[in-house]
Design brief:
Rieske Iron-sulfur Protein; 3-stranded antiparallel beta sheet; elongated
């Protein structure tokens, strides 16, 4: 065998060994790299949720799950909005300075549009689910009750804008998630356009 053929053969073997090593390393590393990617279930839990509000009557509320949390979409009636503005009840955080919400929900109704409240339905005290108590001056809630949400676990009270009332153990208002409207028929929870579409 000539010196030239021997060098050519060694070069071929070195290249073949290198290529085989790179392919083997890639095949070995692929499962580890794939394990860093979130599962389909995890991606679904974080994905935005579309809520059809086209048939949601005034005074009615629909519940959905987003990121494993209950989200409520309340279609507030004119009576509810009037009660919200005329309420004599004191609030812990009336300006929503200590509460979590997008900038466009930092208003009296804590909403992008006054007639719809979109809120995460977990009490900010210990995470219980408040109940809707929309009846104004309900006999068991007292004559000053403006309507809103009541947490049965420890007695926190929230008005129809999900703002916590004085005397409640909850430290802050209920959380408002990012959301946006698509026309008059859909709300997309988990997407934030900052304004009505």
């Amino acid at each position: 065998m000539s010196e030239e053929a021997s060098v050519s053969r060694r070069h071929f073997l070195a290249v073949a060994t290198g290529v085989t090593g790179v392919v083997g390393l890639a095949l070995t590393a692929a499962p580890f790299i794939a394990s860093f990617k979130p599962s389909t279930r995890a991606r679904a839990l974080g994905a935005p949720v579309t809520v059809d509000i086209s048939k949601l009557e005034e005074g009615a509320m629909v519940r959905v799950l987003w990121r494993g949390q209950p989200v409520w979409v309340l279609h507030r009636s004119k009576t509810m909005l009037d009660a919200l503005l005329d309420s004599p009840i004191g609030l812990k955080d009336p300006e929503s300075n200590e509460s979590i919400q997008p900038p466009y929900a930092k208003n009296d109704g804590r909403a992008l549009r006054p007639d719809y409240l979109v809120v995460i339905g977990n009490c900010t005290h210990l995470g219980c689910a408040p109940l809707e108590r929309f009846e104004v001056a309900a006999s068991d809630m007292g004559p000053d009750w403006p309507g809103g949400f009541f947490c049965p676990c420890h007695g926190s009270k929230f008005d129809l804008a999900a703002r916590v009332m004085d005397g409640s153990p909850a430290p802050t208002n209920l959380t408002i998630p990012a959301y946006r409207f698509v026309g008059d028929e859909l709300v997309i929870v988990g997407e934030d356009s900052g304004a009505a579409a």
